[in-house]
Amino acid sequence: MTIQQRLDRWEARAEWPLAAVAAVFLAAYTIEVLVQPHGLAARAVDLATLLTWAVFTADYAARLYLADDRKRWFRTHLVDLAIVLLPLLRPLRLLRLVVLIGVLQNAVGRAIRGKVVIYTVSGAILLVYVASLAVLQAERGQPDAHITDFGDAIWWAITTITTVGYGDMYPVTTTGRVIAALLMIGGISLVGSITATIASWIVQSVAADESAEAAVTAAHINELRAEIASLREELRSPAVEGSGTDHRP
């Protein structure tokens, strides 16, 4: 087994376990933001978050170790490195939610290949949800904050991801604005993927129709050629028989 095959095998086996760990992270983060636990419950949430971060760190280290060209793999997986390091940066710890979206994309994306629209809608719902949690945690309790409860956060996330931006609610913190920028980029990417999918489907449908018409035309031409060849044979047959009769004594 080659090094690349070992890496592919590891990634294939780790997809669903990482998706499960990401789901645990989402549950812990939801409790942290919406419930705001204290005491033992808060420590349990922090422990769950720490364990999920440790799992993703171990996965990153394993993939780096199994890579054939480690320097090239490191350069092409800087986002994965950022996901591992972000929990250490307190102001940007909310961006750990990228872990969840990335893992679910790898784990679920192949399972519904060919159903890009369904996956895109699911991704949009997840993106709106996690962005709502993140911006609520960043904005809540800040002076002059407009987003102070989860309902406001959901409304803000929907208007932002669709690039409508009514302006009635907007983040006032730096972290909230970073989340808003990432959400807008994500919304544009989702719309672009849907548009590209529909355009690709139209092109493929037209190409398939043209190929079918070309095949039918070719079949008709072959039939006509066969009929012409048959007529020529029939025309030659009397001539041959007549010439044979003229030479009889």
UniProtKB/TrEMBL annotation:
One of its GO terms (biological process) is action potential. Its main location: membrane. The chain crosses the membrane at residues 16-35, 47-66, 116-138, 150-167, 179-203. It comes from the Bacteria. It is found in: Membrane. It is a multi-pass membrane protein. Residues 125-203 form the Potassium channel domain. GO terms for cellular component: voltage-gated potassium channel complex. InterPro entries: K_chnl_dom, VG_K_chnl, Volt_channel_dom_sf. It holds the Pfam family Ion_trans_2. The keyword Membrane applies. The keyword Transferase does not apply. One of its GO terms (molecular function) is voltage-gated potassium channel activity. This is Two pore domain potassium channel family protein. It comes from Mycolicibacterium septicum DSM 44393.
